[in-house]
Amino acid sequence: MSPTDVFSPGSTALITGAGSGIGLAIAKTCRTKGMRTLLVDNNEEALEALTKTHFPNDSDVVTFKVDVSSTSDWQALKKLALDKFGSIELLVLNAGRDAAKSKPTSIVITGSKQGITNPPGNAAYNASKAAVKTLAEHLSWDLKDASTSVHLLVPGWTYTGLTRATPGGVKPAGAWTAEQVADYLYEKMGKNEFYIICPDNDVTEEQDKKRITWAAGDVVQRRPPLSRWREEWKQEAEETMAKMDL
């Protein structure tokens, strides 16, 4: 049984942050697989616009405005999902504790590379994303004997609604599209991978592996933290990573 078995007709996906970007791209993938989708966002106008543009007159697509910090909103969402569809097979937390046990289910949680390699400059953001990674890892452990697979989606540089403030609104050459991220997620879920760390057109999978390995080495080799960005360590970091065969 593969985690991608959840991408099947009649299964239901609940996707938060579905108003644009990666969440919307995953929603499109779900619909192409015949899944019923419940699209959640805090921007009601964005939800209305996307249904008109991408899912016109589609009774298997339902939208719901939610403040993710509101317990009552989550309770209302849960009731809607169960009343409308009966079960949730795919939960994408892009911004579920209860899953049907009779069918394979999956949970996808979106993190960030900054929560793994911890680059200097935005400590609070890095810490929040490191916490997301830790929670996803523990959720995977807690559900290891269940029929629910857990996956940590870590996008690279992605051209989404949050990044379209670039001059001229043109996608930078180095960025992936949200659709590429969704396709990559589907591919890696098919291999039952937990850490789904996306490359982009600037940073390859190999480069990501080397950067993560070097970052972990700060602890093992007793280097100062964030050594890759320190002037006295930059050259050694670059030379060492260039020689890595991962």
Automatic annotation (TrEMBL):
Signal peptide (UniProt feature, chain positions): none
Pfam families per record: adh_short (PF00106)
Segments passing through the bilayer: 6-27
Keyword presence, Transmembrane: yes
Keywords: Membrane, NADP, Oxidoreductase, Transmembrane, Transmembrane helix
GO molecular function: oxidoreductase activity, acting on NAD(P)H, oxygen as acceptor; oxidoreductase activity, acting on the CH-OH group of donors, NAD or NADP as acceptor
Record keyword Transmembrane present: yes
SUPFAM superfamilies: NAD(P)-binding Rossmann-fold domains
Family: Belongs to the short-chain dehydrogenases/reductases (SDR) family.
Name this polypeptide is given: 20beta-hydroxysteroid dehydrogenase
Organism in which the protein naturally occurs: Fusarium pseudocircinatum
